[in-house]
Specification:
Blueprint (H helix, E strand, L loop, with lengths): L1 H9 L25 H14 E4 L7 E7 L3 H14 L5 E5 L4 E7 L3 H5 L8 H4 L5 H4 L2 H15 E6 L2 E8 L2 H13 L5 E5 L6 E6 L3 H7 L6
Antiparallel strand pairs: 1-2, 2-4, 3-4, 5-6, 6-8, 7-8
Helix pairs in contact: 1-3, 2-3, 2-7, 7-8
Length: about 220
Amino acid sequence: MINGRVAELVYAHDSKSCGLTTVGVRLPPRPQNVNKDVLAYVIGIALGDGNLSNPNKRAVRLRVTCDNKYPNLIKRIIYSIRLLLPENRVSIIKGGKNFCNISCYSNKWEGWLGWYYDKGSKFNQRVSVPQWVKNNRKFSANCLRGLFETDGSFYIDRGYGMMNFVTIVDNLAEDVSYMINKLGFKCGVYKLKTRTKDRYNIRVSKNVIEFKKAIDFNKS
């Protein structure tokens, strides 16, 4: 898993060095020659708080927005991206008072993530977890860690631990539920109607500590 090894390395790393008609269809390939444990984690991070753009018209940029109150998570995301792209620059861009953006350019992002900078928002593209991640328990755990560390939370409700993940993308909600079940845990999926987009809450309320350990959740 990414979990122990990345957690061990990230704190030691200096975070400041950061007749037939042929139709072409862009399909995300299975990643080759890349650490798939790390990539599954970064995919979860990107699906949670990431977005794609191409401001310089030369390379696609992944930007991950992070709350400044989670410095260890920021370091871990930076280090994980550097593991995937050791020759590419990873930058921290100050946002508002309470957040920052982690930025990295690479034309590998679209193929790895399975969605595109020029096809609209993640909601419009109905982003999902790649099949190769969902097919594997270890990759699923790493992806869930990235998802829960960005758009999820652990909290105590009336003395009981709860873990919650929130998304407005219906099939991403299905993917998260599927991977939780694949790891042997149960969750509830709650659809909340709003004036704009429906919101899906995926909640783990049983065996929460065991689930938290299974995905090595550490939002700090």
